[in-house]
Every structure is written in structure tokens, then in C-alpha cells.
Amino acid sequence: MAMEATKPWYLSTTIIGAVIMVIATVLTLLGRPTLAEGVQAEAAPISGLITSVVALIGAVVAIYGRIKASATITK
User: Fold this and answer.
1) How far apart are CA 16 and CA 46, in angstroms?
2) Is 74 inside any structural domain?
3) Where would you find the membrane-spanning parts of this chain (predicted)?
4) CA–CA separation, 48 and 54 (whole Å)
5) Where would you tag: which of 48, 51, 59, 67 has the fewest CB atoms within 10 A of its CB?
6) SS3 for 47?
7) Has residue 46 been placed in a domain?
8) What predicted TM-score, i.e. pTM, was given to this entire model?
9) Phi, psi of 2, deg, nearest 5
């Protein structure tokens, strides 16, 4: 399939999915925000799960965007 139409890079579903995945990964590497001691023990597993789910969503969006791509992205 020839891609003759163009669009700005920031409108690419692939780029948006990849950015979501990178942000979720960076947040995981930096650690979650410190919570009050009583809440921290309960929130840590949920926070990690949410971050992982967001990263997974980003990856799925990136793959979907690449599959459905119909226009070349430009600068």
C-alpha cells in the first residue's frame, strides 16, 4: 500500500502510543509518589498495576497505529 498523504508527527497514533508507553515506563523507573505511611502499603501494588496497564495500553495503541497507518508522518 503506497502512503502518499502526509500528516504531522504528533497526530500519529503510533507516536502517541509510544509516548504513553515511555511516560509510564519513566514513572515506573522514578518510583511512585510517596504516600502517607498508612496508605502507602495498600497503594503500592495498585499503583504498580496501574502503571503497567498504562504502559500496555500505550504499546497496543502504537501497534494499532502502525497497522492502520494510511499517511506518512512529517516533521
Assistant:
1) 24
2) yes
3) 9-31, 43-65
4) 10
5) 67
6) helix
7) yes
8) 0.63
9) -85, 130
46: containing domain: 39-75
Q: At what angle do helices 13-30 and 37-68 cross, to 10 degrees?
A: 160
pLDDT in tens, 20-59: 988 888 877 776 554 455 555 666 677 778 888 889 999 9
Q: Confirm if 10 and 75 have CB atoms less than 8 A apart.
A: no
Residue 9 lies in a domain: no
Q: Which of 55, 51, 64 minimizes the C-alpha distance to 19?
A: 55
Task: Give the three-state DSSP class for 13.
Answer: helix
Residue 73 counted as domain residue? yes
Lookup: cell for 21:
508507553
Structural domain count of the chain: 1
C-alpha cell at 53: 496497564
Alpha-carbon Rg for the chain, nearest whole angstrom, is 17
